[in-house]
Each structure stands twice: as C-alpha cells, then as structure tokens.
Design a protein that fits this description.
The structure is a single chain. This protein is an alpha+beta fold. The protein contains 2 helices and 3 strands; from the N terminus they run H-E-E-E-H. It has helices at residues 2-12, 52-57; strands at residues 24-28, 37-41, 48-49. The chain has a 3-stranded antiparallel beta sheet with strand order 1-2-3, with no helix packed on it. The longest helix is centred in the N-terminal third of the chain and has 11 residues, at 2-12. It is elongated, with a radius of gyration of 11 Å. The protein starts with a helix and ends with a helix. It binds zinc ion.
Length: 58
C-alpha cells in the first residue's frame, strides 16, 4: 500500500499532458469501487488523470 501511495503522489507532481498546467487533486467515488479514489484534475483545460492504482481496479 505504501508503494502505491508513493506512485500516486509522483504522478500528481507531473503537469497536465494537454496544456502543462499544474494539476489539482480531487477525491471521487464514482469509479464503481468501494473506496474513494484521488484523481488529478487540470483546472485549465478540464483533463482528468487517474493514478495507476485506480486504473488497475477498473
Ligand atoms: Zn490541462
């Protein structure tokens, strides 16, 4: 679990792939899982990025 959390933080340190804007962390619970998932939203262009751990659950 600790390894997964570290990977998520590293991904959120990356800028938006579309416009380069700094990403903002948002907690969502609409992925069909039992736990909340923290995603990264771009406030500039609206792109949303899911951490690797969240994608593996889909
Ligand atoms: Zn963007």
């Amino acid at each position: 679990m600790c390894v997964t959390v570290s990977a998520v933080i590293e991904e959120f340190d990356l800028p938006c792939a579309e416009c380069g804007h700094e990403l903002v962390r948002t907690i969502v619970d609409d992925l069909g899982t039992d736990t909340d998932v923290t995603v990264a939203d771009c406030p500039n262009c609206g792109s949303r990025y899911y951490p690797r751990g969240a994608l593996e659950r889909l």
